[in-house]
């Protein structure tokens, strides 16, 4: 046996011995391991704190696990903890999700200097149990998870270094403008599943967030579109509210929007040119509303969801007023089930949308007492060999995803979008 083969076997046995010590530890996909997010942890090296030199093995809280492969990470999740353990000074990523923690005192963070990510999701944290300024002093913190807790107030103050803030599934009903003023570097803000209404968003809360790319406001109590959104916005989630209309020219100052999700609202009419100023729009979801007719869609759009509305006929000329051979419409998928269609979409659609692959008709609500189907539930045009290979590759990738990932994608934009 060659020397290299012997060394490989020795290395394998050593690695196995190390991991056997922690055989009950779950390395699930929910952990954001540092090497899997280079854009997040290494996008601006000059802005990061210099990592001090530590002798190894480094200190680890006895309640937690510090894997040798990731010496700057400390895993304290799923351990029925009621309090936050003391955090060693070298830790950069701290995982405390899925515990019974109710308070965030300043004590455990006393010696922390380079902490960049904290995950406190799925706990029982209450707003009045968070020591004031406990997060603000963490001048290198860029990601904070507080979703699925019992917060009734927006946590304040927070460090200006913060880039990603997740506050979904709480009871937040107030959004003080001064809290957002101090967050100039935020790129992603998740406020889904809270108690926010129109009165809370009346001010120019988001306008100061010039780096904001993703805003999630789904499952709140909004009746109107949020005002004064920054022009940097690329992903906007407003599902499961009570929004009934989109003001004229609302998107004229949001040209970078890539994905817009407004399913499960009360929209009845979309002005014809509502989306005309969105040259980068790829996904538009207006399903589960009360729309009666279609509207103009930008040539960049690839996926359109208008299922479960009151549409009786798809007027293709409204969607595509003209054909430009130099700027072809990119639409590939359209979902129109649970409407009131009685006939398939006009074949003119295939001239307007030459890239279209699938029209999902499903069942239609054309009769008040029963649903009907239009000839076939799905139309798929024949694909070229190259397109077929691409679809097969995509299918293999999707088959590897878990049910949890699929459910998460239905409720949120994929969190790591850049």
From TrEMBL:
Gene3D superfamilies in alphabetical order:
Ribonuclease Inhibitor (3.80.10.10)
Pfam families documented for this protein: LRR_8, LRRNT
Gene Ontology BP term (one): cell adhesion
Q: Which SUPFAM superfamilies match?
A: L domain-like
Region Disordered, annotated ranges = 389-408
What PROSITE patterns does the record tag this protein with? LRR
Query: Which stretches make up the LRRNT domain?
Result: 59-93
Q: What does this protein do?
A: May be implicated in biomineralization processes. Has a function in binding of osteoblasts via the alpha(V)beta(3)-integrin.
Family the entry assigns: Belongs to the small leucine-rich proteoglycan (SLRP) family. SLRP class II subfamily.
| The protein, known as | Osteomodulin
**Name of the coding gene:** OMD
